[in-house]
Amino acid sequence: MMKTERQCAHCEGDMPIVARADARTCSTRCRVALHRAMKKRVIPDELTTRDRWVRRAADKRPLTVAGMAASSTDPRTWSTHKDAAASTAGAGLGFVLSDVDDIVCLDLDHCLNPLTGRLAPWAAAILRDAGTTYVEVSPSGYGLHIWGRADVRQGRRIRRPDGTAVEVYGTGRYIAMTGRRHGDTPSVLADVSDVVCRLTGAP
User: Fold this and answer.
1) Is 109 a catalytic residue?
2) Hey, which residues does 169 pair with through a beta bridge?
3) Which of 81, 102, 109, 136 is catalytic?
4) Active-site residue (options: 51, 167, 191, 194)
5) Residue 94: phi, psi to the nearest 5?
6) Which tens digit of pLDDT belongs to each residue from 13-49?
7) 35 belongs to the catalytic site
8) What CA–CA distance (Å, rounded) separates 185 from 180?
9) For helices 193-200 and 121-130, what crossing angle results, to 10°?
10) Is 145 a catalytic residue?
């Protein structure tokens, strides 16, 4: 069978020449295997391998895995992803942003219709500019958290004319995690420096 220069997203073998332009896998078997792998590992390894996990209360307060008060600036109150995921304290998980690395989160509020999945045009533009990086739906179902890498040492809240806001954080905060991947975004963190600079007006 003739092959193309494209590779299968699962087995990394050559794609058949008859494969559709938007096809990601070389066979039904690989497609099913890739789907299962993506469901199993949604949150990127760059996050799950760091011991900066907390639980979160329904009112958004950070909690330890034992249900006590946690702090986004006190590593003694953080845990591994495994321990945090196994805990039943609070209402869900949270990841702490720290200045020991360049992991950042762009928090877009009131930009997603949870019934139709339709994004507000301004949010779609930011998502496009962010490129191929992990994005998940916020706990409310109305917002998005875009994860990536950039040099952000001071958080910013950018208020839009229509009353919505974009928040950019890189340290000293925790972000609620849902594991609800937005669309087919990958489980990796990309460099989002350019979009952060455009949003914050940094040179």
Assistant:
1) yes
2) 105
3) 109
4) 167
5) -145, 150
6) 777 877 777 777 788 887 776 666 555 558 999 999 9
7) no
8) 11
9) 140
10) yes
Q: Does 191 qualify as catalytic in the annotation?
A: no
Place of tokens 């953080």: 78
Can you read off the two tokens belonging to residue 17?
A: 């020449």
| Nearest Cα residue to 133 out of 191, 174, 179, 177 | 191
Cβ–Cβ < 8 Å for 71, 34: no
- Report the chain's mean pLDDT, rounded to a whole number: 88
C-alpha distances in Å from residue 81, one per residue of 46, 54, 71, 111, 132:
11, 8, 16, 28, 24
Active-site annotation holder among 129, 145, 162, 191: 145
pLDDT in tens, 140-197: 999 999 999 999 988 889 888 877 889 999 999 999 999 999 988 999 999 999 999 9
pTM score above 0.85: no
